[in-house]
Design brief:
Layout lengths: L3 H10 L4 E5 L2 E5 H17 L8 E5 L6 H10 L3 E4 L6 H11 L3 E4 L4 H10 L7 E3 H7 L17 E7 L7 E6 H14 L8 E3 L7 H4 L1 H6 L3 E4 L7 H10 L3 E5 L1 H13 L3 H6 L1 E6 L6 H10 L4 E7 L2 E8 L11 H5 L4 E2 L4 E5 L7 E6 L11 H7 E2 L2 E10 L5 E6 L4 E3 L2 E3 L1 H8 L5 E11 L3 E10 L7 H11 L8 E4 L13 H9 L1
Parallel strand pairs: 1-10, 3-4, 3-5, 5-6, 9-10, 9-11, 11-12, 12-13, 24-25
Antiparallel strand pairs: 1-2, 7-8, 13-14, 14-15, 16-17, 17-19, 18-19, 19-20, 21-22, 23-24
Helix pairs in contact: 1-2, 2-3, 4-5, 10-11
Length: 506
């Protein structure tokens, strides 16, 4: 089994169908994409010595070149390791050390960061290559005719996630995991065929890129916007010019998109070619979900998943967003019902009430890379401990009530407070620090920091921001700082973040 066969089959059955668009321009049909992937796979194997089981790290902003690199790595039997292009060079260097890739591929927008990260990781510059250089180099090689055969449990994607312990860990996702993810999505969320197009408005390194797989399996097209990012007016233009366009987004992105459409009197343009927005990365508030369903009737779906169980724990398909549907509000307040291949239970007395959400499924990861202890803590007797807290109502719908370990979700991206705290506490003036999320209409949550100072010390906030800028991705830097005489403690002497919540809201 090699999920690269999805591409091979689509190219054989529909060679002239559109595979990739860049903005409104036709970039490659399926025959062209498969040939390009086969040539790139041959080049990876022959020039860069990429062997089955090796890892190819991808540090790229959204770019059509992402697709040939991604599929070529799988085609030659390697695992892909896509990273968020917004990560700081220090963060990428640490992940290079963990993943030990055979090759790192970057594009123009990430070249400086990727090269700096390789230096910090004490790796040879030859480990990195620009996607454009790779594209030129592969033209001299006859294509590898078919994907290298792999076992179902061989690893296809090393997905880095903060999970529930704060230190980035690599979830090992097998070919079987991703095959079942793709079929589950098509069967239970959105049936797909060659008329469909997937717009990559969110990072291709994560959820949006994960959905490449079912769209390719269905022989459908991929669309990379010219901006390479989430740009509301551009997305509205593309919806007005397309048919059966779908994309993955965080709830805050949907709210921003709808607000822009209303302000510019372009809601009809937004609806024109839009088939579905699949949202995840956190639940949408009920009132926001109702408003979105009214503006985009039948054009929304929700999934709840994690890197450890990719995109597939529970789902609310488009039919659940029909205001005429029975129990409409209860459904929208939930994250849906489990996928058929997924069992969900609540770790609470008698399995009832509120508790940690546990998941068992053939979609659950193989474990964390090189971390058997974390794997044993997270997967117990086949049950994945999600770290999320919730309950199941009498209709079988799962409701999230909180997140364990204070995980912050900003713009659909997981941010673990300890990552930020570990940086802030390095400043000589900082005595204690606590990082938490503050509600934000724009991003869902903003990162904010509360801290106390060592006796006799003073501190300019600009110094803290500079420290974060030198060590963290921009989206992880606090939006506000609160300097307090002392941080509140609970009965066990630990910092009481619940008590701090009132301070950051003030």
């Amino acid at each position: 089994m090699n999920i690269g066969r999805f591409l091979q089959r689509s190219a054989e059955s529909r060679p002239e169908d559109l595979a990739v668009r860049h903005g409104t321009r036709r970039w490659l049909d399926y025959a062209g994409l498969a040939e390009r992937v086969g040539r790139t796979a041959a080049c990876l194997a022959k020039v860069h010595d990429v062997r089955p089981g090796d890892r190819v790290m991808i540090v790229m902003q959204n770019d059509p070149e992402f697709l040939p690199v991604f599929w070529a790595a799988l085609w030659c039997g390697a695992s892909v390791v896509p990273l968020n292009a917004k990560l700081h060079r220090n963060e990428i260097a640490a992940l290079i050390g963990q993943a030990d890739p055979r090759l790192l591929v970057f594009n123009e927008g990430t070249a400086d960061t990727a090269k700096a990260a390789l230096g910090l990781a004490d790796r040879s510059a030859d480990l990195g290559i620009a996607a454009g250089t790779l594209a030129g180099r592969c033209r001299g090689y006859p294509p590898l005719p078919a994907p290298v055969e792999r076992e179902p449990d061989d690893i296809a994607w090393l997905f880095f996630t903060s999970g529930t312990t704060g230190t980035p860990k690599g979830a090992l996702l097998s070919h079987r995991n991703l095959d079942l993810m793709a079929s589950s999505f098509i069967e239970e969320v959105l049936p797909l065929d060659s008329r469909d197009t997937l717009l990559h408005a969110a990072p291709m390194s994560h959820g949006s890129g994960m959905y490449m797989i079912p769209w390719v399996a269905a022989g459908a097209a991929q669309l990379v916007p010219l901006s390479g990012r989430f740009d509301e007016p551009e997305i509205i233009d593309l919806c007005a010019q397309s048919r059966r366009l779908s994309f993955f987004a965080a709830p805050t992105m949907i709210q921003r998109l709808i607000r822009t459409a209303i302000e510019r009197d372009r809601t009809e343009d937004l609806r024109a070619g839009l088939r579905c927005i699949v949202y995840g990365g956190g639940p949408m508030l009920l009132e926001s979900a109702k408003a979105a369903a009214e503006i985009l009737p039948g054009r929304l779906a929700q999934i709840y998943g994690q890197g450890e169980c990719p995109m597939t724990i529970t789902r609310l398909p488009p039919g659940d967003f029909d205001p005429k549907a029975r129990d409409f509000e209860r459904r929208l307040a939930s994250v849906g019902k489990p996928f058929r291949r997924v069992s969900v239970r609540i770790d609470a007395p008698n399995g009832e009430g509120i508790g940690e959400i546990l998941v068992k499924s053939p979609l659950v990861m193989r474990g964390y890379a090189d971390d058997p202890e974390a794997t044993a803590r997270t997967v117990e007797r086949g049950w994945l401990r999600t770290g999320d807290v919730g309950c199941i109502d009498d209709g079988g719908y799962l409701h999230l009530s909180d997140r364990a370990k204070d995980l912050i979700i900003s713009g659909g991206t997981n941010i673990y407070p300890r990552e930020v705290e570990d940086v802030l506490v390095r400043h000589e003036s900082v005595c204690e620090v606590a990082v938490l999320g503050r509600a934000s209409d724009e991003w869902g949550e903003d990162v904010v920091a509360c801290l106390s100072l060592n006796r006799g010390h003073s501190l300019e906030i600009e110094a803290l921001d500079a420290l974060c800028k030198d060590n963290l991705a921009g989206f992880k830097r606090p939006k506000a700082y609160f300097v307090l005489p002392e941080l509140p403690k609970n009965a066990y002497g630990k910092i009481d973040k619940k008590a701090l919540a009132g301070t950051v809201r003030a």
